[in-house]
Design brief:
By secondary structure, the protein is of the alpha+beta class. It is about 35% helix and about 20% strand. The N terminus and C terminus are likely disordered.
Length: about 280
């Protein structure tokens, strides 16, 4: 157990919090239950009450205090109505350098609660909704540095795969580059690029572009856009298409929409400038 349960006058018992920025999503909740799914980001899960339950694929349900999970691992999580934190990090994001060595070639690793014992006060503030966006980002860095003080000097992927990711990020959501366009940009054949991309990141380029559209949709959500505005702004055909995609890629929609969610993001304003936005989602 990481720390005793503590009631807060800042965040009500049924509220969840999401801090989102490019390549990272920090999800803090008092009730988390999702269906089996796999997603592009790697995952760090921390039980802020009693241990939480994890089911990996067809394996037996097991309980853990802290879990590090590789990208694209089929799993479901049940916090059993206890405070819980999930950090999703894209494997092409710089912070993935901290998680990759912790996995040591495995897809899943369980860590003891004592690994983060010094963070008890910060976790209490976080679950109470007392952290600003900048404080939450700093907490993420502090947690990762504590778990792995000897980070990799660079991401463990082919530099041309990373160049492809940067190029695609510059295009989406305004444009959806073709494999041919990306291959020409990084100096590879289409077949070689597709092989490298799926081999190293675990998903196709088409699926990667879809994930970037979901990330952009989260920014629109934080800016207070309606569901139809989010769907169309992120390039989905309609609201139903956006909702299905969100559920299939992160299984976030069911858990987030059950109760009020505080969403804070470095969103994009109408003038195209980055700003912080907080939006309250109610049932």
């Amino acid at each position: 157990m990481l720390f005793p349960r503590k009631e807060s006058s800042v965040v009500s018992q049924n509220q969840s919090q999401v801090y989102a920025w490019d390549g990272c999503i920090l999800y803090v909740t008092r009730e988390h239950l999702n269906n089996a799914h796999a997603h592009f980001p790697a995952l760090l899960q921390i039980g802020l009450g009693t241990p939480f339950a994890i089911t990996l694929g067809q394996h037996v349900r097991s309980y853990h205090d802290i879990v590090v999970m590789a990208p694209n691992v089929n799993h479901s999580t049940d916090s059993e109505n206890q405070p819980y934190l999930a950090l999703l990090i894209d494997p092409d994001h710089a912070l993935y350098r901290y998680l990759h060595p912790l996995l040591n070639g495995e897809s899943f690793r369980s860590l003891p609660a004592s690994s983060l014992a010094s963070f008890h006060p910060q976790f209490q503030q976080l679950i109470a909704g007392q952290f600003s966006f900048d404080q939450a980002r700093q907490l993420v860095l502090d947690i990762l540095s504590c778990l792995n003080p000897n980070t990799l000097p660079s991401l463990p992927w082919d530099v041309r795969v990373l160049q492809s990711c940067r190029y695609i990020q510059q295009c989406v959501p305004q444009q959806h580059p073709t494999v041919a366009e990306v291959a020409a940009h990084v100096g590879l054949s289409e077949s070689r690029l597709m092989h490298l991309f799926s081999q190293q990141l675990g998903i196709s380029m088409r699926r990667y572009i879809l994930w970037l559209r979901i990330r952009y949709a989260i920014k629109l959500w934080a800016a207070g856009k309606s569901l139809i505005e989010i769907a169309l702004g992120a390039g989905f055909s309609d609201q139903a298409h956006y909702t299905r995609t969100l559920r299939s890629m992160v299984d976030f929609a069911p858990s987030m929409l059950k109760a009020k969610t505080i969403l804070v993001s470095d969103t994009i304003s109408n003038e195209g400038k980055t700003n912080l936005s907080k939006h309250f989602i109610t049932p």
